[in-house]
Amino acid sequence: MYLEYYGLRDLPFRLTPDPHFYYASRGHNRALSYLTYGLHQAEGFMVVTGEVGAGKTIVVDRLLAGLKESERIVSQISTSNLEPDDLLRVVASGFGVAEPGEGKGALLDTLERTLTMHSRGGARPLIVVDEAQNLPLRSIEELRMLSNFKLDHGPLVQTLLVGQPQLRRVMADPEMAQLTQRVIAMCHLRPLGEDETKAYVEHRLKQAGWTGVPTVSDEVYASVHRLGGGIPRRINLLMDRLFILGFVEERRDLDAELLDTVLQEMREEGLLSLPPIIAPESVGQ
Question: What is the 3 state secondary structure string of 69-84?
């Protein structure tokens, strides 16, 4: 709606993660550094946590984009609450392994041979599990068992667990002791600070072709930071609504008064009941 009016070439505040709009905040850069280190160790587990909408997906996409296509083969799992055998089948399918039908033992044997073939060909097998906090402990243990596959004294596969803050509590369970000993990179994405919220919004606008019109007042940035809790997706939601109303009202300056109107509309629509931010236990380890 507002693209032509404000001279933008793309929507700056999409809710879907887009690597083109990646903003290198202090927290996102730190997380990427931890994960890059972990990936280059070529063993063990990596863990990244954060609130819904904090930017976990875009960090993982950025991490994988740093590898050549020929250097990686990824089994990406976006479903949750899978029992161990079901999880194993999904992992194997992600690596192109069709279930042989003779049972779990045959599937494991086929999967190991497939991973060995990819590793000898120079690829780096990686399992990426999204929403990992929903997996039963026994399913996470199944992933640990896969890390026992070896080639020339090195592991055949790494695993990256991505999840909400609850995943850190799952990892702290005493039953997870053997797995946590294999975690070589763990990080938590903190919310953006107030200064970063402004920089984040302006970065996305510039990526979309913004040349300074409309202007956005400092009061708007402060309110959006407070209301969005520093979570990028929430910030996007608020800013998108503000730009829509700015277009409707034919405004070239977006101020606190206009934002108040947006907030009133969102309250009436039941869209301003944002969940609280869960404070991270730590940033990285």
Answer: HHHEEEEEECCCCCCH
